[in-house]
# Entry
Amino acid sequence: MKIKKRSIEIAIIVVNLGLAAMTSAEETLPKPQGEFQGTIGRSTLDSKPDWPKAVSAPQGAPNVILVLLDDVGFGAASVFGGEARTPNLEKLAKAGARYNRFHTTAICSPTRAALLTGRNQHQVGFGNLQDIPAGYPGYNTIWKKETTCVAEVLRQNGYSTAAFGKWHNTPLWEITPAGPFERWPTGLGFEYFYGFFGGAANQWEPTLYRNTTRIDAPAKPAQGYHLTTDLVNDAIRWTHQHQAAQPGRPYFLYFATGAVHTPHHVPKEWIERNKGRFDQGWDKLRDEIFARQKQLGVIPSDAELTPRPDGLPAWDSLNADQKRLYAHQMEIYSAFLEHTDHEVGRLLDTLRNSPGGENTLVLYVVGDNGGSAEGGLDGHSVHERSIRAGASEDVASQLQHIDDLGGPDYFNHFAAAWGWATTTPFQWMKQVASHFGGTRNPLIVVWPGHIEASDQIRKQFSHVNDIAPTIYEAARVSPPTVVNGVAQVPLEGKSLVPTFADPNAPEQHHVQYFEIFGNRAIYKDGWVAAAKRNYEPWHLFRQLERVLAPNFDQDRWELYHVDKDYSEARDLAKTNPEKLQELKDEFEKEAKRNGLYPLVPTPLGAPSTVGNNRTFTYAGDVGSLPGSVVPELTGRSHRIEADIVVSATGTSGVIFAEGGRFSGFSLYAKNGTLIYENNAFGQSHQKIVAKKALSDGSVKIAYEFKSEVPPRLGPRLFAVAGPGTGNLFIDGELVGQAKFERFASMRFNETFDIGRDRASPVSTEYESPFAFNGEIKEVRLTLLD
# Structure
């Protein structure tokens, strides 16, 4: 035993020395251009040319494919015991290794910030979501230049780089047609980007960008369009172009799907394949997943199944209507995950079978956090933000369109208890960074010739910030100390490369904090101390006062010895107060070092191009303006005027619109008649139809809304609307009026458009883009309150 112990100690010393050598070397980017090696005479006859050498990657550097799925709990996919059938993930795992103690941050933007930098999320500026920035270094969502993206490092070391899919890490006020673009993907090291900004994307009718330009989706849902398929097609196309132009140059491809985040959009044939597979309910499903996990060896044989949280109902307590709706919601989610597995599998098969594909490192992170409870207890068919604003989403209303859920007309999400079931065997779910249900996700790594195809489990504690150091070591790239003149914050993550060849390699990641919405924990050498805020994740918007309450000292801390208690089933806080205090002190040290304070800062006062302006003027050829550059109009008194030219009777098309299928407004003409439409939650469409037709020639039209209550705006994310009256004018004459009771802002998904309605249509009376066939000279917007 002593000899074995000494061998392990020596191995640890060797690995640490290797990592120290890798990280301590003075590496500055960009690399200096070599000196001119030719000769210069008075003419070319006595001169010898010499060309500057292009930066090239280290000999034998692999292609790197980094895949990140969205909102997939630890126990959702079959590769880790889940019910959703993921044969491509299973095939990949058999060719490499599964990591069963890998962790994310518990929510979208922070996980991505840590993933792409090798630092902790607060060090990058993403202690919270892109959507709710706060004016403190750890929360301002301004990607720090001291924490350079892995793509920039690889690019300056001879790699081609591209990102596809979800990008949730650019400040809201910088997502504009005019930039600035330095914190867009193409400003952070990715030479090519195709995807979307924000937390959620309509999978049927997304708001897409190519590099820094807003573009339309290449097809419509009726033509078979789906975002995941489109992203895979574009990624394959990019690699083919790369191979044709630079066949010997390695690439870094970051592929982050919008799947399986809400909305759960998936082709109907995939849903049909899951019919009846979840009738047993979430309690029995959790038992089944737990048994399969032990059989697969992805959890220890002595792991315990944690109980259902208070507030989530037992399946047996539900009535027949609830069971019918909830079971179908999970059928849709499972179908969405299976469809994603198929499409990402198609991508990986294509790339790994392409020239040079045998030297490809695949890092597949199955989820950026635990399963989501954000659908509430009943799930929903529109969106949780609309629910907060008053949409009706009870069981009866959802059952009326149950067969259409998953399709283009709905923004559906499953009931919260399914999110909990997909985190088997752990407590809690997404948002709850204090417990593994929020932070533990599967990781699968494949690299032929470097990882034995034995499907062995890696049990070392690891974190999403370990991915960048792993890529650097695999590519034989030294993490830089200075990038573009800026000194770099040292990496927090530890390379996983030693575990590739040795499943039992010593653990390198000894300390790691977690924090989201004040839910917080600290891991240290096999122990975890955890403190959860007093709110229910499925009632986040209803219980914001609990989340924001400054009484952090009253939060109860729990203690788990996770080296022996895999699922955090046995709280030892009362029996080992000394250990608990030790870990609480460690958390305090890490919190101060990483910039966690103040906890849960209020998201007010963020930079804005709107500012205190009251009037806004737009030329007629302006379009696709995101919410960051247009004032929030939801339920707020305002007037919009447009100078148009009507060339003939029968004029049709959108003059201006904001939002889409799931909420927004549109002023459009149809066969010469002017119509204003207010779409509330996709559930009601109120219209003002002009009493007189548009005449030929130059016309001044206007829409004016007067609210009956003062605006309660606050952060954009939580805009609340009141009732009011809308008036429609043609050349100053009142031609229509209506009382509007309900509004909902969905601007985070779609844009303010002039002359067309891009992405999904606000109105069911037309199909996007429904371009205006007259001329729009100018549009003016004025706030009246």
Observations:
- DSSP finds 17 helices and 30 strands in the chain.
- The chain has a mean pLDDT of 92.
